[in-house]
Amino acid sequence: MRAMPRVVVLGGGYSGVATAKKLQKELHFNEAYITLLNCHDYHYFTTHPHMNGIGTDSIEHTRVAISELIDEFKIDLITSNVREIRLFDKKVVLQDGILSYD
């Protein structure tokens, strides 16, 4: 039996969250290990900050917990900072550990 591939998505911005959601939709449960890596546990809506600045919206509407956007049964969210990406070793070095990917 072949081991499940390990996919690491770097960043919880628009593209990172969209990629993770696409993978969770397209792949069946236990078809791949998917990890979304972001320095915060929230997604920041970059189209809203001006509304906070002029007082027409609150900070609560500018960001949302990533756990509300993804299926945590299919995607593992890790909150950490990337220190180095080792392409040839297929490893991501974090401030507090190392992730391997395929």
TrEMBL record:
Coiled coil: none annotated. It comes from Fontibacillus solani. InterPro entries: FAD/NAD-bd_sf, NADH-Q_oxidoreductase. PANTHER family: 64 KDA MITOCHONDRIAL NADH DEHYDROGENASE (EUROFUNG), APOPTOSIS-INDUCING FACTOR 1. GO terms for molecular function: NAD(P)H dehydrogenase (quinone) activity. GO terms for biological process: aerobic electron transport chain. The keyword Lipid biosynthesis does not apply. This is NADH dehydrogenase FAD-containing subunit. Its cofactor is FAD. Belongs to the NADH dehydrogenase family. Keywords: FAD, Flavoprotein, Oxidoreductase.
